Amino acid sequence: MTEPVLDQSRNAAASELSAAAAIAVDRATTEFRRGQPVLILGPQAACLAAAAETVALAGLRRLRQAGPALLVLTGRRAAVLGLAASQGVPTPANLEAPNERPFLVSLPAGADAEAVLRLADPTAVTAALAPDLPPPPFPDELAAASIHLAKLARLLPAAVVSALPPRSAEEHLRMAAAEGILAVWAGDVAAYETTAAVTLQPVGEARVPMEGAEDARIVAFRPSDGSTEHLAIIIGQPDPAKPALARLHSECFTGDLLGSLRCDCGEQLRGAIAEIERQGGGILLYLAQEGRGIGLVNKLRAYRLQDQGADTADANEQLGFEADERIYLAAAEMLRRLGFKTVRLMTNNPDKVAGLERLGIAVAERVPLVIPANRFNRDYLTTKARKFGHMF
């Protein structure tokens, strides 16, 4: 996923406007999780949209009142279903950014919520319903925003949409208000991660002695819309004037808390803390990016696909995601707010190095973090080296 560029010249008024937009997007993700339709507005058009994973009969009925219901999938998911080839359009392998190109199919009139979910979820136990073809024209910006909302909600990246008749934005907003439907602008959805990152503020701090690192404190950062916090674990007294030893660690409930042997995350977390302590101090950023950014539930779905023979990258792509959905905007902003502009980055992942440097954090050195494989995660580690370029 491409990292947006942070605007370091933003002013306070712009941040306040961004916060209001971020709150609207955050509320829309909640509606998606509840299976409720949301109004998405673009420059020249508008639609109603609901998450394919959670939409219920009432939501489908409301969408169909507006017009033909369309299912929006990512290019990767459409390829898994064989839909791209059947319509004679470029397959994801031929697209410059396959997962960013929405793919639309018409839903049969009798398709219910279960049929929609079967099209979106590769772990569904029954066959997917064959969609009607071809779909009518639909604005790419609105289709992409519906997919993005589903991702932000940590749902399967698929949505059901219905185009609204041409009207002014004010008329669409009045309709939505009258029906109790939340409204959001497509451009605000696209900018959400940037807005959340640049408005991060420290909201809590405490000394937390840890096993192997007794001189440690945790600083919690929260974006202005009040959504998910990220944590900075500061060990010792690192000097901002010198390159600090730093680790970016994406949260992993199964590995970090349960000691899962399917990955090396828990061992990496504890190993990084021990190494930072051994080298005299540094920073570990604990980022809310479970499952390479797809969320815990989708990670469990990916595990199920892995049990059926897919590797960790293929499983994410079969679900319709990129192999790695993480971005490092929040990490760069947290380091800046803590006063660190140059780091010695403890990682095996070259994307983390490149991501931080694109965002203005200099990486003076890559420090490897090697964890021995076990019989459950050996294939996983091999895939990280072969497909993600990890250096062990």
From TrEMBL:
One of its GO terms (biological process) is riboflavin biosynthetic process. Catalyzes the conversion of GTP to 2,5-diamino-6-ribosylamino-4(3H)-pyrimidinone 5'-phosphate (DARP), formate and pyrophosphate. PANTHER family: 3,4-DIHYDROXY-2-BUTANONE 4-PHOSPHATE SYNTHASE (PTHR21327:SF18), GTP CYCLOHYDROLASE II-RELATED (PTHR21327). Belongs to the GTP cyclohydrolase II family. In the C-terminal section; belongs to the GTP cyclohydrolase II family. Its cofactor is Zn(2+). The active site is at D324 (proton acceptor), R326 (nucleophile). It comes from Hypericibacter adhaerens. GO terms for molecular function: 3,4-dihydroxy-2-butanone-4-phosphate synthase activity; GTP binding; GTP cyclohydrolase II activity; zinc ion binding. The keyword GTP-binding applies. Its EC number is 3.5.4.25. Pathway: Cofactor biosynthesis; riboflavin biosynthesis; 5-amino-6-(D-ribitylamino)uracil from GTP: step 1/4. This is GTP cyclohydrolase-2. GTP binds at R247, L248, H249, S250, E251, Q268, E290, G291, R292, T312, T347, K352. HAMAP family: RibA.
